[in-house]
Fold this protein.
Amino acid sequence: MKYSLAIATLLFSTTVGASPALKICHGEYALCAASSTVPVPGKTIAVNGKTFPLGVAVCPVLTGDSIADMNLMNNSCDAPAGKVWSLFSTVSSYPQAPSWAVAPAIFRTFTTTAKPGGGMSNMWSFLCVKRPQPVNGATLADCKGPMNESPWTGAAVPPGTKVTTSAPAGAANPVGGPIP
């Protein structure tokens, strides 16, 4: 697992450049890779001086090694009590909506649109609030992050952009990232 994370970190830093301050964290984290996102009407979030619409994704909480962007996490993997960071991981199976049963990750691409639900979201290295009751044995967290913001560059992701995700086809505003 550590070897996989080291390779993922190398690939990540090669693809995205020097912008994210990458670090491997150990412990609990939310994995939003297969989650959809609901916009929060009238609310925004600032990311590195840029303002984006705010979205909320429900994500499973896992334990293990994960990859973080320290620039967005106050340079610490430690989350406040009752919270976790939404991070990247190389796990290949994890709880997924709607049943929250463990299922394999299935990567796919899609093209963003301006239609409702046709965008994407970025939850990487944003704070999540853990829910008190597990669902089907899975601890879940509500994660808030920017809609249509690139996790690689921090730039806006316009309609017509090809994005990768593990969310199923038809999921509204899936968590993902544009293909560089």
Remarks:
- The mean pLDDT is 90.
- The CA atoms of residues 30 and 61 lie 4 Å apart.
